[in-house]
Amino acid sequence: MEQNPSRRVFMIAAAAGAGSLILPASAGASTPASWLAPARAGRTAPDPFTLGIASGDPAADGFVLWTRLAPAPLAEDGHGGMPGRDVEVDWQVAADERFRQVVRTGTATARAGSAHTVHVEVEGLQPGREYFYRFRANGHLSRVGRTRTAPTTANSLSFAAVSCAQYEHGYYTAYRRMAEQDPDLVVHLGDYIYEYSGGVYTAADGNVRRHAGGKLQTLADYRVRHAQYKTDPDLQFAHRKSPWVVIFDDHEVENNWAGDNPGTLVPGFAARKAAGFQAYYEHMPLRRSAVARGTHIKINRRIEWGSLATFHMLDTRQFRDHQPCDDGMRSGCDERLGQERVMLGDDQLKWLAGGLRSSPGTWDLIAQQIIVGQRDYHLGPGRELNVDAWDGYPAERDRLLGALSSSGAGNPVVLTGDAHVASAADLVADFDDPDAERVGVELVSTSISSDGDGYHDPARDAALLAENPRLRFVNERRGYIMCTATPEELKADFRTLDYISRRGAPAKTAATFTIPAGERVLT
């Protein structure tokens, strides 16, 4: 069940709105005076916490807390209805849901130049335990969120892998069903927002909502779009329940951009990329190391879960060469075969290889955006490949798989988004050699909502599996992957929903795979 504030906490929030803030006596001396002071602004100020709260990037001694003040979240100027001045925001972290044991508290500045967002990097906490947090500003209390620190040692880890949440295409029921399973961690693999004008990108079964505004061009545009997505109650619920670790793909800027190459012919790409990066940082629970600097942002990083798992978060957009053969689905594209073509770039590939060699985790989870394994979409003679994915960069893929093989990492698992189709596949050193060495496995999360309800076509799925002998499973419905890792195995449940064009769909397990430790194979 959702970890809601207790009745006392709800009473506190109500009192704040009435002009006073009353904490239970059991809150004790840990509660700062600012939380007890009269909340005069609460008499007239609207609730600034319309976009919810979030936490992310857990470490053994802390995590990031996030919120944005936005009483009018869709205001066209991108300021969320806030004045053009900085605002102080109080925050608390407690060991219990009722905030009787407040362990950290402070005040952060929500700056007007950063869309009144707040990123608090909390430190000095105990490893491997659950905490609760909340914010206070303008006489209002936020909802209560639950988060956790990473352990130093662990016997189990539950995490969800999600991606691709086009707001117009359906409701975010999959986010809610995922959150109801109480994962320790949520790994978002990109396409958190989409940049299209309202109604331009239409799902096969029709759109159920509409984007505010046109195609994203300015910083204000990107801020409004992030705000619109974050007004969704299912997404807010999912952020309150677990810490998230996030990376972007293309749509956080624009479709299929690659390095300095735009995905469209609309001029002004550098300005759009800088705006997209800034708005992304502003709206995600990221550390200061990820602050956007013009057309650059650092999102590749590691999250360690004690001796059990290491997440290697990759960036497959900023450093890649342009897609070969004018992008898209292609047959006979010799341009893709160039040995010099890169996806990660030399520095990031070396960073990954070094991290794999020194990783303390039983499981090395490589979180990235696009399908790594070779995937032939043409049923029958001939071959058709998606050259925006790693199939457009086979030499770089060889270098990646070589790093997985030579690093000594015993259990590499690639987590992938982008495709809007769930799949599981073995990764091998040579996809055209039936006896090739197994290098790892790839788990591809379907979309949360992109492309609408999806469909189930057993005959086509069987043909696709026959065409791709390393592919073990495929499913075109919406959903997520729920994983449980132990020192002995990693279990992946592919959870799907039959519909998202209306609310309330249950989630079911379409397939389960187990990866025994040390075997690099799906069973």
Architecture overview:
- The chain is of the alpha+beta class and 523 residues long.
- The chain contains eight helices and 23 strands.
- It has a seven-stranded mixed β-sheet with strand order 12-13-15-17-19-18-20. Strands 11-10-9-21-22-23 form a six-stranded mixed β-sheet. Strands 3, 4, 6, 7 and 8 form a five-stranded antiparallel β-sheet that branches.
- The N terminus is likely disordered.
What is the fold's blueprint, element by element?
Elements (H helix, E strand, L loop, with lengths): L6 H11 L35 E7 L2 E7 L18 E8 L7 E9 L6 E6 L7 E8 L2 E2 L3 E4 L8 E6 L10 H8 L4 E4 L30 H12 L2 H9 L2 E3 L22 H15 L17 E5 L3 E5 L15 E2 L15 H13 L4 E5 L17 E2 L7 H13 L5 E5 L5 E7 L9 E7 L13 H10 L3 E5 L2 E8 L3 E9 L10 E9 L7
